[in-house]
Amino acid sequence: MSDTIRGSEAAPLQSYDEAVEWINGLIPFGIRPGLERIEQLMSRLGDPQRHLKFIHIAGTNGKGSTCAFLTSVLLKCGYDVGTFTSPYITRFTNRFQFNGTDIPDETLVSLANRLYPLVKEIADSELGSPTMFEVSTALAILYYATVAFPDVVVWETGLGGRMDVTNIVNPIVSIITNVGYDHTDILGDTLEQIAGEKAGIIKPGVPVVSCASQPEAIQVIRETAAKQGSTLYLAGERFAYERLRGDETGQTFSFIGPFRQMKIDITMLGDHQCSNAAGAMMALEVLRQYMAFVLDDEELLEGFRQTAWAGRFEQVSTSPRIVLDGAHNPEGAQTLAKSLPQVYSYKKLVLMMGMLSNKHHEAYLQHILPLVDVLILTEPDFRRKMNAAELAHHVEKLQPSYAKTDLKIIVEGDWKKALSLLQSHTEAEDLGVVSGSLYLIADVRATLMDQTDSEKGW
């Protein structure tokens, strides 16, 4: 970069570890909804986000998978694609991808040094310090606008939508995957309130695609789109999909849209991935039809077929069979409970789970408990983890109404020991599942796949 900063005084961050440590050091400032600080940061940098084309994705579940489908297809069709997602599964750089590759360490350091003095200035103002996610978002915009120059950026919200930091952008199309109960302490405790926050990404005149299904959520999205003069492409109304077949190797669904219909194969498993892929397909159809995106059918279908997304209904071991799924809220648990018998045949289901303390555990457990034969309760290696014994208390309360009569419960707070227990209890005809917090999924995945450089985190 032409404006590379030289000298330790001008460039206080000398290495990748120092840069990540500085950004993560802002975590104590928490999640502070609002755009004032990111607007200040962008303004001081000349508003680089205005030079980029974004596909903005919000929703309770399925955001990451939808981002993965869009990225894979657009790449296959010859576009340069930036992808900004969270949380990361392996390494901090996973958040900032260009053409499927993480931001180089040295680029991250250079951009962090550009942001460092601006963050200090804002921290000293009445606005207070920008948060970790605000700085990460600013870094992503700088990377795409001044270094990588993608044709399009696949842009995932952090939390909600309306007051989420990512909402500083003006996209070419918006997607709201679905609406469910998560982060109710920040987004509100009714579907209408949560849908209102998600619908905050709808911009004037910008088309919006949604697979939301609840009437009260749909009404809010519909009203917001109408108010903004945005065309709404709603699943079940403007487009539809139907799962045709599926097994452990993948599935096929039919897509029926306003412009054409197709059969699409995906290797991602579970009925919910048909929904995510159909939403992505509708957004791609909008780009093709109205924004002159050239998407060859053969390449488009291959892009869908090749899509993979770590830690989401992902089989990572065959002997014993172990599936990882980052379901951590009631809707995620409901989807997981539906997908497991739909995709796999097994004698016993052995479930290892660990949660953060701010989740709707009992509603989650009500969906998943009826399927489980052996339940191993553990704790993610994270500051906001829920104690395994406390989680067991929730299970015992629900056991008479929701669990199998012979359910075996094991409480083991050390996730590494819990993983060994999962492996030993999962026999040849059984299925082992690790679910709950993505912090737990990240650690287990790194262990099972021998990824020694795993960092994991929000």
TrEMBL record:
Reactions listed under catalytic activity: (6S)-5,6,7,8-tetrahydrofolyl-(gamma-L-Glu)(n) + L-glutamate + ATP = (6S)-5,6,7,8-tetrahydrofolyl-(gamma-L-Glu)(n+1) + ADP + phosphate + H(+)
Cofactor: Mg(2+)
Sorted UniProt keywords: ATP-binding, Ligase, Magnesium, Metal-binding, Nucleotide-binding, Plasmid
Signal peptide: none
InterPro entries: Folylpolyglutamate_synth, Folylpolyglutamate_synth_CS, Mur-like_cat_sf, Mur_ligase_C, Mur_ligase_C_dom_sf, Mur_ligase_cen
Any GO molecular function: dihydrofolate synthase activity
Residue span(s) of domain Mur ligase central: 57-283
Domain Mur ligase C-terminal span(s) in chain numbering: 311-437
GO cellular component: cytoplasm
Pfam families assigned: Mur_ligase_C, Mur_ligase_M
EC number: 6.3.2.17
NCBIfam families assigned to the protein according to its UniProt record, in alphabetical order: folC (TIGR01499)
Similarity field: Belongs to the folylpolyglutamate synthase family.
Name listed for the protein in its UniProt record: tetrahydrofolate synthase
Organism ancestry: Bacteria, Bacillati, Bacillota, Bacilli, Bacillales
